[in-house]
Design brief:
The protein is an all-alpha fold and 162 residues long. It is 72% helix and 0% strand. The longest helix is centred in the N-terminal third of the chain and has 36 residues. It is elongated, with a radius of gyration of 23 Å.
C-alpha cells in the first residue's frame, strides 16, 4: 500500500521557487555606457542654459528669462532624469555617470581649482565654457555627482534586498 506525499498541494515554506536570474552583465555595460555618454551632454546643457538665463536676467532685470536658456536647462534636466531612470535597468549608469562627470570634476575643483579650470581648455572657447566654469566653481557638479551616485547605489541596494 502506498501513501501520497503529505501536503503536496502546498508550496514550499519559503514561498514559490523563483527561476534563476540570468546574467546582468549586458544591462550593466549598456547602462554604464549610456550614463557615460548622456551625463556630460545633460550637464553641458544645464550649465549653458542656466548661464544664458542668468545673463539675461542679470543684464536687464528682465521680467522674463532667455527662452533658449530655459529650453536648454529643461532639456538638460530631462536628460539627467533619464540618466537616473537608467537605474531601472542597472544602477551602473547613474553611478558611473555621476562619478566620472560629477564627483571627479567636483573634487578636483575643491582640491585644486587651477587644475580644474585648466581642464576647461579642452572645451571650445565660448559661452558654454563660461557656464561650465560657473557650475564647477559653485559646486553644482559635485552635488549632481553625489545625487547620481546615490541613485545608482540605491538601486543596487534595493535590487540586492529582493
Amino acid at each position: 500500500m502506498s501513501y501520497p506525499e503529505p501536503y503536496s498541494v502546498y508550496p514550499p515554506a519559503g514561498g514559490p521557487i523563483a527561476a534563476p536570474e540570468g546574467s546582468r552583465a549586458v544591462a550593466r555595460v549598456l547602462s554604464g555606457l549610456c550614463g557615460l555618454v548622456v551625463t556630460p551632454v545633460a550637464l553641458g546643457l544645464l550649465a549653458y542654459g542656466s548661464y544664458l538665463h542668468q545673463r539675461q536676467v542679470a543684464a536687464s532685470f528682465a521680467e522674463h528669462g532667455d527662452a533658449l536658456g530655459i529650453t536648454l536647462t529643461v532639456a538638460g534636466a530631462v536628460l539627467l532624469f533619464g540618466v537616473a531612470l537608467l537605474g531601472a535597468w542597472s544602477g551602473t549608469g547613474p553611478a558611473v555617470g555621476g562619478l566620472v562627470w560629477g564627483l571627479v570634476p567636483g573634487v578636483i575643483t575643491l582640491v585644486s581649482p587651477r587644475s580644474a579650470f585648466d581642464l576647461l581648455n579642452l572645451l571650445p572657447r565660448g559661452q558654454m565654457t563660461v557656464g561650465v566654469a560657473g557650475w564647477m566653481s559653485s559646486g553644482a557638479f559635485l552635488a549632481t555627482g553625489f545625487l547620481l551616485l546615490g541613485a545608482g547605489l540605491a538601486v543596487r541596494l534595493a535590487r540586492r534586498r529582493r
